[in-house]
Amino acid sequence: MTEQRADRGRIRIRGFESEQGETRGGSPDGAGSARGGSADRVRGTRGGSTDGETSVRGDSRQWNSNVQPESVSGWRRALSRFARNREALVGLLIVCSMLLVSILARPIELWGVPIQPVSLAPYPPSEMLWLTQDVSAYDPPSAAHPMGLDGNGRDVFSRVLVGGRYSISIGLVVVTITSAIGIAYGSVAGYYGDWVDELLMRVVDMILAFPDLVLALVVVALFGNGYWQLVLAFSLFGWASYARVIRGEVLEVKETEYVVAAKALGASDRSVLFKHIVPNAVPPVVVLATLNIGTVVIGVASLGFLGLGLPPATAEWGTMLEGARDAIVQGPGGGIHWWVTVFPGGAIFAFVLSINLIGDAITDALDARATDSRARFERR
Amino acid sequence: MNPENDRSGDRPTRRQLLGATGSVLLSSAAGCLDDDSGAISFPLSVRLEVDADNTDRLAWTAAIAQVMEQTGYFDVEIEQYELDDFLERIFQPKYATKGNVPFLSISGTFNPESYCDPLHGTENQGQCCNLNGLGYDELDAMIDRARFGTEVVDDPALRARRYDEIWRELAEFRGSSVITYITEEYVRNTDVRGFSPYPFVEGTLEYALYSPADRVLTWIDRNADGATGDEWSAHRSGGTLRYGMDANVESFDPPYSTDIYSTSVQSLLFESLTTLDAEGNVFPWLARGYELVDVQDVDRRAYEPYMRPVPTDDEGVLEFDGEADVQAIVVHPDDDRIADEEVRVLTPADAADAVEAGVYGMQYRYELHEGVTFHNGEELTADHVVATAKRYENSDVAAQTFDSVLHVEAVDEYVVDIYAQVPDAEAERELPSFRIHTLEQAELPPNGIDPLQDTPPIGTGPYEFETFADERYFRARKTDDYWLERKGIDALEWYDGPESFPAGPVIDEIDVEIISSDSTRSAALQNDEIDLTFGLVSSTLEEYEDDDGYVVDSIQGGGYQFFQYPVTVEPWDDARLRRAVNHLVPRARIVEEVLDGWGEPAWTMLPKIARETGTADYEALEADLREKNAFDTAAAIELIETVIDDRGYDSNVQ
Amino acid sequence: MTLRRYVLRRILLIVPVLVGVSMLTFALVSLTPGDPVSRMVAQNPSVTAAEEAQLRAQYGLDGPVWQQYLTWLGNVATGDFGVVYGTDRPVSAVVGRRLPETVALGVFGWLFAVGIAIPTGIYAAVRKGSVGDTVSRVFALSGVSIPNFWLGLVFVLVFVLWAGWWDVRPPREPLTHPETLWHLVLPGVTIGTATCASIMRVLRTSMAEELNEEYVTAARAKGLPERQIVWKHALRNALSAVVTVVATLTAGIVAGAVVVEVVFSWPGLGRELVEAIHGHEINLVVAITLLTAVTVVVCNLLADIIYAVLDPRIRYD
Questions:
Q1: In chain A, how many domains are there?
Q2: Which residues 498-527 on chain B approach chain C with CB closer than 8 angstroms?
Q3: Digits of tens for pLDDT over chain C (317 positions)?
Q4: B429, B404 Cβ separation under 8 angstroms
């Protein structure tokens, strides 16, 4: 349940409910929770309890148990539900194999020490093969070069394999950084409420007003392009959507009796916040983070395509597409070098699609868990 | 005299760069500069630097890096920059000490000097384009002696021989390696007839549309069943030429634009006193005729009595007292802008005094055609030339203008004198380069001629400005009352061709489409949305050539692709190492693979267009130098081994 | 609280956000090495030190940061974003010329997204599990997973180059001309695809939930026609879930404009932004960034108001 809904709930529930919801200091202009293509999915598919529904029923807040609701069995149930989801398993398989392949594509050395000796890619990704072999730029796919050669006579297959390294690792690093910052920020805002919340969430509103790609472009413009600059570009402001989501969750969880009880028993703010509240608020963040990996991968590729990502010769999927852009049009009667465009583009698509499948499945699984726990409370 | 700049409008001039030095622009150039003062050992770490804008250049930089790596003697790293960042970075004088190898291209002129001086002249370090600081006085003197002085002004053969010595010396010294000559390929559909490209992109539109000197005339024939062939006598009038250009027209203000796209479009609207044919021969144009009145054997020190002291700041910027925007025509050759607190400067007013007192290098006299009118009806007089020259002061092109021009003076209504600073074998081409403005527009501030700010350009050219949509298109319409058409082709006294040759371009409208993406431009050409374009992806050119519906015209321009060695940094101070790396440049393969055959490997530093004046015997020159530029890994390794042995460097190369 | 009061309050509340947005933008400008004057001086070295100081004073750059911010804000509020360094043209004029093109593209993308997503989303929810539902699910999932620049490239390849249904270049007619509108189709569809897919997903879920509600069951029991139940009651409620993601989707469209305009050579603000970044035209970058953010904030506000109007269950006391 995102902060958004909490807000909507606040406006809506008036008159139906006690003033309890009103005192939260929710953001009145809280439209637009997470951004990118993922927020809608967070909300949309988790809508097991959309606002409309809850307010009509007038029983929106079911968290009145004195038992900690997130039981181990809830997680286990979610996991088993996830495991039964075939689409999700296919997605997971694709993501894992792409990850593995990109790691094994070329040997990895750290400070001169080889830590990964395998080399799946037949050629170094930036080697111009016309210097050493009897090949030419734009040779079509063949047995020796299953994805053909690009405009510089480099092996597209090798480049696609290695390309995952940049996109995927940036995605993972960014999501790790942003979710960590977002969780901390959002929990503080949600837990302390009042003016702290008001102030912190105004900052989030402000950041969310900028489309992430535009902010990333500006950051790249300021700091130049390169791997860490890209990480910075997507991390600097990317945490805001997490902050918003987690705050919404915290607002809900903190009103539950077990938290109130913990506080009454004299637990410190920090221990209440991180021992009781945050773990319970994490599920939506997991969904958001998963989907966000996909968003970041597309974002990195978009910057690469605009020529503002990694240096032009880099074997990053989006950057490869930038080079391919001038190659999609041939002279009169010429064939199209489709392989230069299709393979890197297909790699991005396959990866992001798989991530989305996984994200959807996690959502479903967590819904099942939540529904289930709610059912238990209702029964009680 | 400037590095080629494919995209943006800022071709750095000396002045600009001097000013920019030290001030921090938005720069991503955060590279770490390993100045390994430690022991030199092989494999040698080298950093090649290149701009990211030109994909072909990137490709051969990577190829050369790969070859270097494969010898085992080098650890190569390639660093890429945005073009603007790159130019700013490499033009800093201290760049020379960084020990990097920059890759760039240079676009010269018909003047052979433009192919040796910018890269090697000591004066050009940190300005253009002596990036890695050859402080080679002997060479400077050779270059100077080949252009300036009465000896070479009077004796072209002597001049050619002096250049030959320079090319041979450069091949020995090897401060830079030239990779390919720049060629330009124009693709047109067969509706465009008679087209002929010019060696410089910025001159092509003007030249191809109408050049009586070479009897070049482009016309449009939309009838597919019409006769084919490019002979001008078959021409017909009217129609619209749709020209696809890959960058925006940044500016319509001649002295405030240096990029080839703006210059190219402006050439439709504005004219100069003289014009050039495709070989660089000068013909009077707005001038009915011109003559060299006087030559005096002076050097720039002769102006000392007329100079005034001007303080400079740390960056070498002249701080004129109170008055802004004073052009420094000559800075005393013994003074140093950066090192000295104060330098002696000849201002325009001082130059007038010097000329008054009879001190000047050359005096050219131009007699203008009477009855030449601007698009607004104003009649051209000598005052227009003087006013225009004044507007060129302190402009973006001031550096290349006032390296030769001393003073411009109206003699009477239709006669104007242009004085050169010193006897200069290039003066005939260089002096009258002003694009003549109306009196009103000559008073405008920098960038003041701008149709988007309600000041459309007004010139004497055959076309008038019609519309401009920023970054989209530009349209020019044939003017109703072109002066040459009114006067007839006989008004060109030098013209000796058939009288039936038109007295102006015959196409009614020029429609310039600005399409930055090469593939989109190619698609637009095939979709019949444009008629003519250039700079398409080289791998598609052959398909155009094989198709009956298109014609490809390829021309070698005045420029080449090169890289420079850090000659002042050990071990690159050893010429043998530089020669070795030069042997690792697979020129022929690069042309074949990267340019798909649409290019020409450069065995000398002298492109075709400058061979007339730049060498006594080109064949002999190329025969001599070709060997030194051969792709020969074994020879390279042998040279490197000698260097290692001689200098006692460590080597871990097996 | 009446609806009017709510709207009024909501409008007042975006003021602090706008101020924050301007501060963030200004912070980005300030992060840039060198101030505008030193950049100007770099372009024109004949400027003397005294003139430089005078320029600084004129631009308010000699005071403390907060004062600089206020000066800047004052200029921006009057539409003065400074000039483009390369050409000395006012930034506001450049932005003004490009803005309608991007707005047209964005609106077209929106219309496409809504026009396709609402019927499909409803169909999918009503016929859950049918072939049509599966197809639309696959479409929606692909739509959110496909990079829009790649989709655009594929469209260009197929519809412009192979089929020849569109010209490569946008026509020169004004935006309202049918030819221009026709030309908007491909970029519009490209930019709208992700939005469309998102709306479909939200709508399918929320609609399916609405149809399980007690009031729907009750209505069915009363014998109301299914069509009326779906279109009049359930849709209205389900749409409010869509409205909540409007701001997100608007941000997505604005970001999409950057990429799509480059792919289709559409002369809008997005392409201008990319070129401004390549050309280091910081004033232009700032103006476009700020405009983008303000657009999102305003759309956000509109969405909230629409939401309040749309949802019958909101009561204002």
A1: 2
A2: 513, 515-517, 520, 523-524, 527
A3: 577 888 888 888 888 888 888 888 888 777 765 555 665 555 554 555 666 666 666 666 667 778 888 888 888 888 888 888 777 888 999 999 899 999 999 999 999 998 999 889 888 888 888 888 889 888 999 998 999 999 998 898 888 888 888 888 888 888 888 888 899 999 999 999 999 998 898 888 888 888 887 888 888 888 888 788 777 778 877 787 777 777 778 888 888 999 999 888 888 999 999 988 887 788 888 899 999 998 888 888 888 888 777 765 554 43
A4: no
Last residue of a domain, one of B380, B399, B430: B430
The helix/strand/coil state of B509 is strand
In DSSP notation, B429-483 reads HHTT---PPPTTGGGPPTT--BGGGTB----SSSEEEEEEETTTEEEEEE-TT-H
Give which of B147, B430, B494 is closest to B280, Cα–Cα.
B430
Residues of B near A (CB-CB distance < 8 A)? 26-30, 52, 55, 58-59, 62-63, 66-67, 70, 78, 80, 517-520, 522-523, 526, 536-537, 539-544, 546-547, 549-550, 586, 589, 593-594, 596
CATH number of the domain enclosing B149? 3.10.105
Q: Which positions ≥6 away from B567 have C-beta within 8 Å?
A: B132, B133, B134, B175, B573, B578
Same-domain pairing of A26 and A150? no
Backbone phi, psi, residue B438, to 5°? -75, 160
Q: Is B41 exposed, middle or buried (0-12, 13-18, 19+ CB in 10 A)?
A: middle
Residue B26 lies in a domain: yes
Examine the domain organization and report whether A16 and A114 are in the same domain.
no
The structural domain count of chain B equals 2
C-alpha B87/C-alpha B11 separation (Å) is 9
Q: List the alpha helices (DSSP H) in chain A.
A: 3-13, 39-45, 51-57, 72-84, 86-104, 156-192, 194-208, 212-223, 227-235, 240-253, 257-264, 269-271, 278-305, 317-325, 338-379
Q: Which two tokens stand for residue A50?
A: 């959309």
Residue of B nearest to A312 (CA): B52
Check: CB of residue B451 under 8 Å from CB of residue B468: yes
Residue C283 lies in a domain: yes
Interatomic CA distance for residues A112 and B248, integer angstroms: 48
Residue with tokens 């001008």: B232
Same domain, A61 and A92: no
Q: Does B88 contact C at CB distance below 8 Å?
A: no
Contact C155, C189 (CB under 8 A): yes
Does residue C51 form part of some domain? no
Look up residue B521 and give its two tokens.
């431009």
Neighbours of A158 (CB within 10 A): 25
Check whether residue A115 and residue A27 sit in a common domain.
Answer: no
Q: How far B369 CA sits from the closest chain C CA (Å)?
A: 34
Residue A28 sits in which domain range? 2-67
Domain ends where: B408, B430, B452? Answer: B430
Main-chain dihedrals φ then ψ at residue C228, nearest 5 degrees: -70, -40
CATH number at residue C156: 1.10.3720.10
In a domain, A74, yes or no: no
Owning domain of residue B410: 288-430
Q: What residue spans of A26-155 are helical by DSSP H?
A: 39-45, 51-57, 72-84, 86-104
Burial classification of residue A335, based on how many CB atoms lie within 10 Å of its CB (0-12 exposed, 13-18 middle, 19 or more buried): exposed
This complex has an ipTM of 0.85
Q: Domain end: A10, A40, A67, which one? A: A67
Closest Cα partner for B417 from B355, B349, B327, B359? B355
Q: Would you say residue B56 lies in a domain?
A: yes
The alpha carbon dihedral of A133, A139, A142, A146 has a sign of positive
Q: Which amino acid is at C64?
A: P
Tell me which chain B residues have a C-beta less than 8 angstroms from the C-beta of A131.
Answer: 63, 66-67, 586, 589
